[in-house]
Design a protein that fits this description.
- There is one protein chain.
- The chain has 467 residues and is an alpha+beta fold.
- It is 32% helix and 29% strand.
- It contains 11 helices and 21 strands.
- The chain has helices at 7-26, 31-52, 169-174, 216-222, 281-299, 322-332, 344-354, 370-379, 381-384, 412-437, 450-464; strands at 2-5, 59-63, 66-70, 75-83, 91-95, 101-103, 110-111, 120-128, 132-144, 150-165, 198-204, 226-231, 237-243, 251-255, 268-271, 274-280, 302-308, 312-319, 360-364, 388-392, 441-443.
- The radius of gyration is 34 Å and the shape is elongated.
């Protein structure tokens, strides 16, 4: 509890107390009467404190314990105030807001009149600037004393957990055809290549059946040819493996005109070449993971998630359903880059031990560092024979062939820049060739096409029954 002078008390002090004190000091015909005025005002002020000190003692605050929001999307934090047994002239309130949030409107932060024992709900409008988990722990309130001479302030305890999730609006817009289920476009049932791998039943042999489908043991028991029949697998396991080691913090810059709508001003970088939107490779990895989870849910497959850096720190067994999607989202929204090198050998051993059934592994890693790429190449054979592995990474900004039309150098500095990018592109192409010999496909899409590329790969694998 804290008590401070109100404007009325300061005004009385300036217009009454100071002149009366001056008369007492310099003397005069009314000096005796003037000496009693400051004492009377002081006594009245003390009485005002005495009768008003308990005004905020019965004030309680009701809030939600958990709130979910999306980065860059406005949301309202609901606050409920109740003053037990005491009416308040007004109530001014304020929150201790983390730096990752911006306040939308500061003009409406006051309740003009608070009746006794009545619940008043107010909305505190905020704009999340960064994904993650945050806590609002302090609420400060202020009201006027009985006679308006003092302002009484108090800190109310509160604990509201706010989870800020990534904004997938731009990714969904690029993949809009996958999320439309009407007309001639969208996600529909399509013909799948192959006869399937999942055993259905045994039946009598019919002319034209493939000899490879004959069950020789069953034929020996029955004394007549028996054929195995298979069906298309309806439920398959899909795991997304996200690397959040040091290389995942690599910055990605996109021209402001090519970026998604609704970009926050905090993510815009001004330079001589124009304005850029700055994000990180890990952000793109997380967006891609959530998009794949949504698509796998629509396809009826089981989706799992693995996060690793110098070790595996997040593992979610594959399941399906909206509740499981929320579990995956809650597991990855707090991921941040670690300043460590990735331990691929430990990752492969972990996957080999935990994943016994053949699955599709979509690995989102950065292999632009030669030492990291060599470590990945030596470790991947531990799982590449059992599982189908697809590797995706965001193409570095300058990793293009020297004479490609992406960028025409205008001076000598840009010539050397393009030459360095050509060498980097050549190294990545060599890594792709070496991984291809192990049955692992490496893709290098641009940052805005990462999710679309991963979804296309997944649907092609499902259509061709490669798992």
């Amino acid at each position: 509890m804290k008590i401070v002078p109100n404007r009325l008390l300061l005004l009385i002090a300036a217009l009454v107390v100071i002149p009366c004190t001056t008369l007492v000091v310099f003397g005069g015909p009314v000096a005796g009467i003037a000496s009693f005025v400051p004492a009377l005002i002081l006594a009245f002020s003390a009485y005002d404190i005495l009768v008003s000190s308990q005004l905020l003692k019965g004030l309680t605050l009701a809030t939600q314990e958990l709130m979910r929001c999306t980065k860059g999307k406005e949301f309202s934090l609901s606050l409920g105030f109740v003053s037990e047994g005491v009416a308040l002239k007004f109530l001014r309130y304020g929150l201790k807001i983390p730096g990752e949030f911006s306040t939308i409107d500061l003009s409406v932060m006051k309740i003009e009149s608070l009746a006794a024992s009545v619940l008043y709900r107010v909305e505190y409008r905020l704009l999340p600037l960064k994904r993650g988990q945050y806590f609002f722990e302090d609420c400060y309130v202020e009201t006027s004393s009985r006679f308006g001479l003092w302002l009484i302030r108090r800190k109310l305890p509160m604990k509201v957990e706010v989870r800020t999730y990534p904004d997938l609006t731009g990714e969904r817009r690029r993949l809009s055809a996958l999320f439309l289920n009407r007309g001639a476009s969208g996600m529909h049932a399509c013909r799948q290549v192959g006869k399937g791998r999942e055993f259905e039943q045994l039946r009598e042999y019919l002319p034209g059946d493939d000899f490879s489908d004959i069950d020789w043991k069953a034929m020996a028991r029955r004394g007549e040819p028996v054929t195995r029949t298979f069906q298309i697998e309806r439920t398959q396991e899909v795991y997304v493996v996200v690397d959040h080691s040091r290389m995942s913090a690599r910055e990605i810059r996109a021209p402001l005109g090519e970026a998604d709508e609704g970009i926050l001003a905090e993510n815009i970088e001004h330079g001589s070449g124009g304005d850029y939107v700055v994000t990180s490779q890990l952000e793109r990895f997380l967006h891609c993971s959530l998009i794949l989870a949504s698509v796998a849910q629509r396809q009826g497959d089981l989706f799992g998630f693995v996060g690793f850096a110098d070790g595996v720190d997040r593992f979610i067994r594959s399941r399906n359903g909206r509740a499981h999607y929320n579990v995956v989202r809650d597991a990855l929204y707090t991921m941040e880059p670690k300043k460590v090198a990735p331990d691929f050998e430990q990752l492969m051993i972990f996957l080999r031990q935990r994943l016994t059934r053949r699955a599709l592994l979509v690995m989102l890693v950065d292999l632009s560092d030669p030492l990291t790429a060599e470590s990945f190449y030596k470790s991947i054979p531990l799982i590449s024979r059992q599982h189908l592995v697809l590797v995706n990474m965001v193409r570095p900004e300058h990793a293009h062939p020297l004479f490609s039309p992406n960028k025409i150098p205008s001076d000598s500095n840009e010539v050397y820049e393009c030459l360095g990018g050509h060498f980097q592109w050549r190294d990545l192409r060599e890594i792709k060739r070496r991984l291809g010999h192990l049955g692992v496909e490496l893709s290098l899409p641009d940052h805005e096409a990462l999710s679309a590329e991963a979804v296309t790969q997944y649907l092609n694998v499902k259509r061709r029954q490669l798992i």
